[in-house]
Amino acid sequence: MSNQGAGALIDATVRPRRLARIFSRDHTVIAKQFFAMSIFFLFAGGLLALFVRWQLGFPGSAVPVPFNFLMTRTMAPGGVIAPDAFNGMFTLHATFMVYFAVLPMLVGALPNFVLPLQIGSPRMAFPTLGMLSFWLSLLGGLLMIATYFVDGGPASTGWTAYAPLAAVSHYTGSSAGQNLWILSLAILGIGLILGAANQVVTIVNHRAPGLTMFRLPLTVWSFLVTGLLVLLALPVITAAVGMLLMDRTLGTSFFVPAGLSVSGSPLAGYAGGGQPLLWQHLFWFFGHPVVYIMILPGMGVVSDVLAVFARKPLFGYRAMIYSTFAIAGLGWLVWGHHMFQSGMNPLLGTTFMASTMAIAIPSGVKVFGWLATLWRGQIRFGLPMLFALAFLLTFTVGGLSGIFMASTPVDAFIHDTYFIVGHIHYVLFGGSLFAIFAAIAYWFPKATGRMLGERLGRLHFWLTLAAFNCTFFPMHILGIGGHMRRIYDPTVYAFLRDLQPVNTFITISAITLGFAQLLLVANIFLSLKNGRRAEPNPWRAATLEWTLPSPPGDGAFAVVPEVHRWPYDYSLPNAIEDYLPQTSLHVNGTGTGTDS
Amino acid sequence: MWNFPLLPDQASTFAGRVDGLYFFLVALTAFFTVMISLMVAFMAIRYRESNTKVNRDNPLPENPTMEAVWIGVPLVIVLVIFFWGVNIYFAIARPPANAVDMYVTGKQWMWKIQHPTGQREINEIHVAVGQPVRLTMISQDVIHSFYVPAFRVKQDVLPGRYSQLWFEPTKPGIYHLFCAEFCGTKHSGMIGRVVVMESADYERWLAGGSSNGGSLGQTMADAGAQIFEAQGCITCHKMDDASRAPILKGLYGKSVALNGGETVIADEQYIRESILRSGAKIVAGYGPIMPVYQNRISEDELMQLVSYIKSLGGPATGTPAATPSAAPASETKGTPAAAKPAQNVNEPSRNK
Fold first, then answer.
1. Residues 14-33 of B with CB under 8 A from A
2. In this structure, are B333 and B224 located in the same domain?
């Protein structure tokens, strides 16, 4: 592959053949491909969530007519979702959302588009790797969709795929589905690793002259840290699912202990001697950092959006960077808090308890830093700002409810209940997804040359915010009431019958939430067609991408920009405009923190 | 609006303590959520762009003192939660010396319970109020989790390895028992109940026997002794002759030196493993001559064997090390005379 700076310029200027346009090495095209894939899986995963919610809110009633087209007769005899189908749906819901919606958005679409533009580079470091990264992810995604249609149904062991449930095919109805699930994740894992390598190298090697590390916007810092996390975490899960596949197909016993039985008779074909807990350790050693992979880019985006829309320098720039590293670093030491109930030595549990609680401190630094950024600002409420402010609130709730899990005795009570489901959705929906919405609204003008429609956008925002809270907040109440996660029919439990109205309420809210997302898609399409034309810098932001035309078009940064200041020079006392772009040479009265 | 309690019943000695910490966390979370929401709302209104009559002077890009405060205050709060939590956590991890042993086997999708006195139950467990119970649990297939919301306890039940859980019921009644770890198709149907009875009622129930699951017709230790003979264990493991195999009398809870030079505590897990895979941990001075009993003994029978070996007595020093934590015995809760030797209920001195 061509690694010289000129290579990409030639690529961009020579009119590519049709095949080359599809298998494009252009980072903005790759970003759009990732974006489309991610949005598709967001809706597919959302639809699956609604099926799950339907069964929980209205147990035993048939799925309403226009939506039952996805149900085969074995999945839903008489239109009512069967237990195995239910298990498959919540498994695929989480798998789609985590692996194929949020990760490709935050490790694929966002960095591929934003990263080179923010560091003044005409391209990513490895265009071919970027292309491969997308096509491997897509292949993984297609395989994952295929699991829905194979004999025996999709994987139905949860996105955590605990062994031996997932390691021995006799324990679930799903055989080919689970195997495909594993293959799909392995392929996606490789794709994301390639993308992350590309992202890290680009940041290290392709910054414009003058753009020192401590002049990078928080978004780029978060891409750097996220990229490193992906590089370290994804190989673990890729290897672990490989071992799981061998257990399932070759008869190895990595995760299978001796002496198991299947419906009364001894399980044949396994030598035994494996450790079910080994899977949990491997899975969560990947699984907890992946939570930070999904939240850190959002934190970066929100930091920048808050500064731009409050017209203030980001408060505590360095503290923000160090807290990002602290969260990422501590993220490697906390996986055990997912396993407090799995039979852990209490002394070990205590250390995991301490390391988990320690994360509250860098997270607090971020939240208070964001608040201080708003202080005495000049706040404008553009769409990106609305989502950023919502992120600030929902992430706070999600972060604080995490302390409940860190406190082991409380965790013993709420572990595997809906409290956890509520918590993870506050972090992943209220955190990652709100940040993604902020990012979409923020960079839409740059990517398309049109502004995202404000009126429809606000409707989408308020509906989403309200429905989000109505959907996920009551889940905490269910969990404290003792409602387990992953149960097919809550009405078989006497004491949960009193909680059934809450379940119904959640389901109605979830349906509202799901349909509200159609507004986003409608807004995107309407704005693409009729949206107001975007100026190069509609938000009056200081970072480099806003020095380019909207959209940047071919040959962005054909003239490499020179950077003279940090990205947060807003509301300078003596400036004519209330901000100075990073390329501005203009020497100014105070020059707050212009350099390190 | 809705007719439901915010928390399940409090029916164990832990429940009050766990709920205390829980409510503290709720208050803390509510405080910070409200505070941050109010701050965002306040600033959004006061510092909105159209408000020109507001002081926007001196926007600080950094302020070390303030940052120290918002690092320091959360740190103190976190430390309080940590030590409070650890305190309860260790109590949950340490069964008291006077706990009654019961044995639980989980399978898709059913709980099987064995009482030391021989009663067997399915999806039901009868216990006496005020009597601490220590469960030794194992799964025959996938991972399950023993969860009694009213007791605020939950413990995963693993295949191939014992896990343990203890509780002390404080209120007679019938409480839900669930499987909390997703375990396959009928996970949501894996339901049981815990029946907590007054002591007198419990004695009567024990005498009458279980109506659901039958009975061994003898104590678990006796049943274990029969297996011990039937499987021929007794030919090597003699009561008074250590020439071919270690003497098992007094083994339970003792520290055992192995061939490799390490030592292990002879707890339930060690005994189980040594029966199934005898070559795994061989006692110092012996050869690998014991046959492997894997797939020859069911988990239920294994528990009877373990119960039998436990009935042969433990070291005279005090409580057997109950959990892998090897918690100091002096800390055990609720026993005035912690120095008393272990009172295993299934200890009908069977010195042959």
1. 14, 17-18, 21-22, 25, 28-29, 32-33
2. yes
